[in-house]
Structure formats: C-alpha cells, structure tokens
C-alpha cells in the first residue's frame, strides 16, 4: 500500500513508521533551534512579548489552504520550544515540573503512534496487560507485605487524591453506594493539615463533602498531638473521618510523621490517606526510603512519577493494599465491558478509572522501570536530593542569604537577608521577565520565601552558584 502524503498519513500500521521518520527529523531540528533561540530557562520579555511572538509566528492558525505538514510542524514546534519554560535548564526550578527522561519521551511517542485506548481490552490488548503488571509492581513498593496490592493509573496527584476521597466516601456508606437513601446524616469528614495540597479541598467540594477540617501546621508538618486533639473532639459529633497526611509538601517538601499519624488514625477509627505525590519516589532509594516509613499503613497512597520520576506528564498512580478497596469504582457499559464478555475472560478496564478514553501512560513508566531498575531510579533520586543539600550549604555559607530550613526532599526555601515581601516578589518577577531564572514562591509563618525546586538530577554545584548570583544581582543593596 502506498504511503499517503505526510499530512494525512497515519502513525500506526506497517507504513506508520515510514511516515513518521521525516516528521520526527523536522521535530528534532525545530526543538534544537527553538532551544537555541530561547537560550535560557524561559523566553525573555514576559507574557505580552511571548504572546505577540506566538501570534506573529502562527497566524493564521486555520487558513483556507494549509502551509504543508513540514512547514507547519517546523513553525509551531520551533515556536513552542523557543517560548517554553525548560525544566531541563538547571535555573528552571520553580515547580514540581520535571525534565523528562529522553527514554520516557521516546516511549511516549510509541504510545501516541499506537494510540491504545485504555477503556476496553479490544482497544488495548497488550497495553492492558502491561498496565496491570507495572501498576502492581509499583503498588508492591508501597505495600510490600500485602498479598495482592494494586494501583490505578491517574493523571497525577490531583486525580489520585480525588479518587482517594471518593473511595473513602464510598467505604463509609452503609452499602457502599453513593446514592443510598439511608446514608448517615453525617457524611465523611476530611481532616488535613494546612500543609496539604489544595486538591484535597477541591476534591471534597467536587464530591459534595463538608469543607475539610484544616489543622494548623506552623512548623510545616501535621503533628500527632494536633490530630489527636481534633479527632477526640470530633468523637460522637461527626460521622466517619478520613485523615490525610502529606509525604512531600509543595511548599517545602516536608514529610509528615507518618507512623505516628497512622497510630492516631487507628486509635480513633479514622481512614488514612497519604498524599505522596512528591515524596513517593523515595521508595526507589535505599538511602532515603526510610523517610517513608509508615506509608504501608495507609488505606490509599497517591504517587506521581512526573515529579521525582522524570516522566512526561501524565504519570500518576493511586496505590491500594488490595483490589477490594477499588470495588466502588465498578461500572458497566455494555459496549465496553458487557457482563458476558467479562465472564468469558475479557479484562474489565472501565472499572479502573473515572475516565473512559485514556492514554497508555503506563508504557513510558514501564520502559523507564525496565531500563533503569529500582537502583537506577534510586540513584537519580539520591543525586537530586544531594543537589538540594548542596544548595542549602551554599546559602548558609553566603553572608547575604537566609535559609528557611534544611531540605527534606529537593525543595529549598531561601531569601536575601532582610528582603521584604515586595522586594522578594519583584526579584522573582524580574528574573522571569528577563528569562534568566524560574523560581517559585512559598509563604510560611515566617513570611515569603523564594523557592528552588530541584528536579534535574544532572544539576552541578556551579549551576547552583550561578543561580544565587542571579538572585543577588537583582537584590537591592
């Protein structure tokens, strides 16, 4: 069969790779020239300049007659790359926005070309098996003593947290259904710390639950005494309770005292969820995994490998100790998982997500795990956390900087000594507008801080020294 013109050729089938090859050459060239034009972690000029550049390069986006596949691909990919925030640049360190491994990005290309849809076996025969094997292997890291641990693939920590609250709500219902007319008058009450991710509050809102009780975390972590007092006060006054702990906060990377919080939850009969979207990757590291002691005592655990896992977005999971925990997600649609098909042995994929159509995000994860192994990924984790310690050392040794605290993971909070809120905000925005550095911001009980979230395992001490010099160069004297 002849290969159709590049613009209408399909990516799959035996001719797909032939159609892709010249297109990929164009993409790689455009990524290279775009990065060269950007020449830094962020395009300079700020939002208006970037928007004008994109408009001028891409207009019109819906012409009467197209410019041709190679020209369109080259123009738009170059424009996107030249205007990107590049997390591979060591000075792009604001968010939990990782530079993906080239290996994982290449695997993601195969997933896009084959385009399995993970909502029925007949759309994803091999991918469904790969997903089951890989998700269970990762769940076994979380629950090493469990007989049959499992994990759902999600779009990230936000979806994982939402699923955790949903499963807790359903477990609290008298017959496990959300629509039972005899549901207790007192619905599930979520209890979390002020350090919890905002998705906990949003999930409670989406699920029609009461506003979470948010406990103070003045030192950045949720303390057992605070939780004990709260749960003791709730006894007899509310219905079932879900306690949410965090293993890696977005502000500072702090890890709550998981074993002690598990004890308190058990003492009060509360369900326990741990949001380990940031810190969960410490499971790969022999050096740092002890920081997650107590993780296996949670009913549900959120993980996210597009943070300290170096995967392209999206790469989240929700791990559970056994498949019975996932029973409330059971859903039947005759065209996807008819009863007789399931009874005949076709796997039911629809009950493994709140989504219907979903990408085979497991492929890039599986390739990475197979290629690097636990020790290989653990080494990347160790190197990244070591870079954060190096940055903290540089800050402590610098007479014009103040360190918030020693880093737990790869987030470092710091500020020029004596800088007020207005000055810090101005420094950060100036660096962004100049395209020189991308730093985050975090507000703690001690005020506003600049936040460096290191996720590039190849960052060198010289990169960190330069980053501090850039900040110093924009600090009023």
Key structural traits:
477 residues; alpha/beta; Aspartate Aminotransferase, domain 2; Aspartate Aminotransferase, domain 1; seven-stranded mixed β-sheet; five-stranded mixed β-sheet; 12 strands; globular
Describe the secondary structure blueprint for this structure.
Blueprint lengths: L15 H23 L7 H13 L10 H14 L9 E2 L8 H13 L10 H18 L7 E5 L2 H16 L16 E5 L4 H9 L6 E3 L8 H11 L6 E6 L11 H10 L3 E5 L24 E5 L11 E5 L13 H4 L1 H5 L18 H36 L3 E3 L7 E6 L4 H14 L3 E7 L2 E7 L7 H13 L4
Parallel strand pairs: 1-11, 3-4, 3-5, 5-6, 6-7
Antiparallel strand pairs: 2-8, 7-8, 9-10, 10-12, 11-12
Helix pairs in contact: 1-3, 2-3, 4-12, 5-12, 6-7, 8-9, 12-14
Pfam families: Pyridoxal_deC
Family: Belongs to the group II decarboxylase family.
Organism: Streptomyces lydicamycinicus
């Amino acid at each position: 069969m002849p290969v159709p013109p590049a613009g209408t050729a399909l990516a799959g089938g035996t001719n797909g790779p032939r159609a892709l090859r010249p297109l990929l050459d164009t993409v790689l060239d455009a990524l290279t020239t775009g990065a060269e034009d950007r020449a830094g972690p962020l395009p300079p000029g700020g939002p208006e300049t970037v928007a004008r550049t994109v408009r001028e390069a891409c207009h019109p986006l819906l012409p009467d007659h197209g410019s041709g596949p190679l020209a369109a691909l080259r123009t738009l990919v170059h424009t996107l790359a030249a205007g990107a925030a590049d997390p591979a640049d060591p000075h792009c360190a604001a968010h939990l926005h990782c530079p993906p491994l080239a290996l994982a990005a290449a695997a993601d290309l195969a997933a896009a070309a084959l385009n399995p849809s993970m909502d029925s076996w007949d759309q994803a025969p091999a991918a469904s098996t790969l997903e089951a094997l890989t998700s269970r292997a990762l769940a076994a890291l979380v629950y090493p003593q469990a007989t049959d641990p499992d994990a759902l693939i999600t779009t990230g920590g936000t979806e994982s947290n939402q699923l955790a609250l949903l499963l807790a709500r359903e477990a609290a219902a008298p017959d496990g259904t959300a629509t039972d007319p005899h549901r207790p008058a007192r619905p599930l009450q979520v209890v979390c710390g002020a350090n919890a991710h905002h998705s906990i509050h949003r999930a409670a809102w989406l699920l029609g639950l009461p506003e979470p009780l948010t406990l103070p975390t003045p030192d950045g972590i949720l303390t057992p005494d605070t939780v004990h007092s709260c749960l003791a006060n709730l006894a007899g006054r509310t219905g079932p309770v879900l306690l949410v702990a965090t293993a890696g906060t977005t502000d500072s990377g702090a890890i709550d005292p998981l074993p002690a919080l598990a004890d308190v939850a058990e003492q009060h009969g509360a369900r326990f969820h741990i949001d380990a979207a940031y810190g969960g990757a410490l499971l790969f590291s022999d050096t740092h995994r002890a920081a997650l002691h107590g993780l296996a005592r949670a009913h549900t655990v959120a993980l996210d490998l597009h943070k300290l896992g170096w995967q392209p977005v999206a790469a989240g999971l929700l791990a559970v100790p056994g498949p019975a925990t996932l029973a409330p997600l059971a859903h039947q649609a005759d065209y996807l998982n008819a009863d007789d098909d399931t009874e005949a042995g076709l796997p039911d994929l629809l009950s493994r997500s709140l989504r219907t159509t979903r990408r085979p995000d497991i492929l890039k994860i599986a390739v990475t795990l197979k290629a690097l192994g636990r020790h290989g990924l653990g080494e990347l984790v160790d190197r990244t956390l070591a870079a954060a310690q190096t940055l903290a050392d540089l800050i402590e040794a610098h007479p014009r900087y103040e360190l918030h605290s020693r880093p737990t993971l790869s987030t470092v909070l710091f500020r020029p000594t004596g800088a007020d809120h207005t000055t810090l905000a101005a420094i950060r925005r100036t660096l962004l507008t100049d395209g020189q550095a991308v730093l985050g911001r975090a507000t703690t009980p001690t005020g506003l801080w600049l936040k460096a979230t290191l996720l590039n395992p190849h960052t060198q001490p010289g990169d960190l020294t330069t980053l501090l010099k850039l900040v110093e160069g924009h600090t009023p004297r």
